[in-house]
Amino acid sequence: MRSHTASDNESWGGAGRYGSTGVMTEWQKFVANQRRLGVASPKLVCIDIRPDGSTQAPERAEILNVGDFSDAVFQLVASYLADAAARFVAEVEAIEL
To answer: Where are the domains of the chain?
Structure first.
């Protein structure tokens, strides 16, 4: 796969079918494959070190977008992947802005 700079807003090769990003096109293929292998709910975490208001994967139940980076990201992602909804919310709320 080819990757682009964050500024071109077309990572993983640009727009796919129906105007989706290349990331979403590949994500849908990955999800279908994981479900065939018995993984009921695969998840995607996108970390944008230099957030600019756009994203390659729209936020939804199985997709987490993180803008910027600090040590807090590791705990945040761990809570998200562990399906600990209350813990996840508490981790987000505990981050000092």
So the answer is: 6-94
Q: Where are the alpha helices (DSSP H) in 1-97?
A: 22-36, 72-81, 85-94
Q: How far is CA 8 from CA 4, 52, 53, in A?
A: 7, 11, 13
CA distances from 14 to 54, 62, 64 (A): 14, 22, 20
pLDDT in tens, the chain (97 residues): 333 334 444 444 444 444 578 889 999 999 999 999 998 889 999 998 888 878 888 888 899 999 888 888 998 898 888 877 777 777 778 888 7
- The answer to whether the CB of 47 falls within 8 A of the CB of 6 is no
**Is the entire prediction scored with pTM above 0.70?**
no
CB burial class (10 A; 0-12, 13-18, 19+) of residue 12?
middle
